[in-house]
Automatic annotation (TrEMBL), chain A:
One of its GO terms (molecular function) is ATP binding. InterPro entries: AAA+_ATPase (IPR003593), ABC_transporter-like_ATP-bd (IPR003439), P-loop_NTPase (IPR027417). This is ABC transporter ATP-binding protein. It comes from the Bacteria.
Length: 247, 310
């Protein structure tokens, strides 16, 4: 395996007495689709903030895209892509304006933005609507554009924080087609989701419980080792041992 | 009066966007009724009209026997509303929020405590904490308590489980089940298809239009094509291969398998197996399955270009 795109050792973050992330160690390889699961409050967001250079760890080690999470946070920010359901694009800008805006944020030159903008709009079939406000576009198109914009500066890795929350089942599946295409091009995808069927679409998944990684493996191996048939069952067993039947 | 909510031909437009288009539905008293739809389907607009926070352009909405346009005062005191966005006071504590809402509705926390006891006991250890400092799951439980504290006849919950993890979602639905037993009518919206099966009846909403209203069993009965769960060593190749099969009606990834629907009523797994065996795919398994809510929703959905999905 080539150099991992994410590598952490005993990565820890405390808030006062509370340990939000408790000595997590894992690696993610190039072109891998890595699912980062856990219950609300398990420490996922804190871990992601550290990996994206937004929050300094308390102790441990980690490198993302080859940069240190303690000393090179600015380089990390420039070399990763990020997208979430809550924050992606500006609805009151046009598709073209969004591309220009985010291209500028990522420090691309005007010439490069112009070139990429053209290529992107045409490959997404958005040229006819490139100058209408984003709020007028169907959600599926917006999502495609948001994902492409997160990859505009050709990062090695893209962090997707619940990218499919609230999305209809068909758009959700189209979004995963895009994730696979990006992974085929060698982009590493780090994704969080509350949809357990989507956990099955990842190459490997980790499940965080109370700040620790309680399980990390391929979905198949993980299900086998716990003797369950679905990720849903597995998740419930890890997160709330002893819980009854339900959804 | 036996219905808790009666919506007839409701249309609501925002400039160029039609949020709701001729929507009609009836929610019976004591029912746990689900509105299933994605972001932008019109769920929130429907809830706002029912809460009397917004007026319909056309049509009529009746809530608990009162007209949503003229008798909004009667409605407001009898419903509990939990909006999709967290809307409690973040700079008040858990306890203070609850007390505030009780006072607004002219009651006390003590008076209806037994209704929320089950949920509130989980919040009790944090009662002095500011609402803004709670975790997602705790915020949602507090919001539910605040919506219940005046013992409403109808509970309107707009996407209470969005962004909530699978385990907390399950616990939330168990709470709804217990509230239903207390005789409270519940209208709840969700983008999660698996939650639909926990409702007495559901309505599928897409682009402001109701695609179907039925019991969960009745809904899946609308899916008539033979459906198979197919597995193979390489999921992506399997999807591509199945999509190019001339008899394919729909092909969708579903967790660890692929759901394949065939145009021919008499399609057999042997035939599909023969077709797949002619490729480099291995470890192929095919199993005939019953359609679920999500299969049916996708079959009923209209695609982006406006055509009905095939």
């Amino acid at each position: 395996m080539s150099e991992p795109v994410i590598h952490t050792e005993q990565l820890t973050r405390k808030f006062g007495e509370f340990t939000a992330v408790d000595a997590i160690s894992f690696s993610v390889g190039e072109g891998e689709v890595f699912g980062f699961l856990g219950a609300n409050g398990a420490g996922k967001t804190t871990a992601m903030k550290m990996l994206t250079g937004l929050l300094l760890p308390t102790s441990g080690k980690a490198a993302v895209a080859g940069f240190d999470v303690f000393t090179e946070t600015e380089s990390i920010k420039k070399n990763i892509g990020y997208m979430s359901q809550r924050f992606s694009l500006y609805d009151d800008l046009t598709a073209r304006e969004n591309i220009r805006f985010f291209g500028g944020i990522y420090g691309l030159s005007s010439a490069s933005i112009q070139e990429k903008s053209k290529a992107l709009l045409s490959s997404l079939d958005l040229l006819p609507v490139a100058d209408s406000r984003l709020s007028d576009l169907p959600l599926g198109w917006k999502q495609k554009l948001a994902f492409s914009v997160a990859l505009l500066h050709e990062p090695k890795i893209v962090f997707l924080d619940e990218p499919t929350g609230g999305v209809d089942p068909m758009t959700r599946r189209r979004f995963w087609d895009m994730i696979y295409e990006a992974a085929d091009r060698g982009v590493t995808v780090f994704v969080t989701t509350h949809y357990m069927d989507e956990a099955e679409y990842c190459d490997r998944v980790s499940i965080m419980v109370n700040g620790r990684i309680a399980a990390l493996d391929t979905p198949t191996a993980m299900k086998d080792s716990f003797g369950v048939t679905t990720m849903d069952e597995l998740f419930i067993r890890l997160v709330r041992p002893g819980a009854g039947e339900g959804i | 009066m036996t219905s808790a909510v009666e919506v007839k031909g409701v249309t609501k437009k925002f400039k160029t966007v039609t949020a709701l288009s001729n929507v009609s539905l009836t929610v019976g008293k004591g029912e746990l009724f689900g509105i299933i739809g994605a972001d932008g389907a019109g769920k929130t607009t429907l809830f706002r009209i029912l809460c009397t926070l917004m007026l319909a352009d056309e049509g009529r909405a009746e809530v608990l026997g009162f007209d949503a346009r003229k008798e909004y005062r009667n409605i407001r005191s009898r419903i509990g509303y939990m909006p999709g966005r967290f809307s409690l006071y973040t700079d008040l504590s858990v306890e203070e929020n609850l007390k505030f809402f009780a006072t607004v509705f002219n009651t006390t926390v003590e008076e209806n405590y037994e209704l929320i006891a089950d949920i509130y006991t989980q919040l009790e250890p944090f009662k002095k904490r500011m609402a803004g400092q709670l975790s997602g799951g705790m915020k949602q439980k507090l919001a539910l308590c605040c919506a219940l504290i005046h013992r409403p006849d109808l509970l309107l919950l707009d996407e209470p489980t969005t962004g909530v993890d699978a385990v907390s979602r399950r616990e939330f639905w168990q709470m709804l089940g217990r509230l239903k037993e207390q005789g409270i009518t519940i209208l709840v919206s969700t983008p999660y298809m698996d939650e639909a099966s926990l409702c007495d009846r559901v309505a599928f909403l897409q682009d402001g239009t109701i695609l179907a209203v039925n019991t969960p069993v009745g809904i899946t009965g609308l899916f008539t094509a033979p459906l198979f769960a197919v597995r193979a060593n390489e999921k992506h190749k399997l999807l591509t291969r199945l999509r190019s099969y001339p008899h394919a009606k729909s092909v969708y990834a579903f967790g660890s398998s692929v759901h394949y629907a065939d145009h021919r009523p008499s399609a057999s797994s042997e035939e599909i197996m023969r077709y797949l065996s002619e490729s480099e795919l291995q470890e192929i398994t095919i199993e005939r399955i019953e359609p679920g809510i999500e299969d049916t929703f996708m079959a009923l959905m209209k695609t982006d270009d406006g055509s009905h999905h095939e």
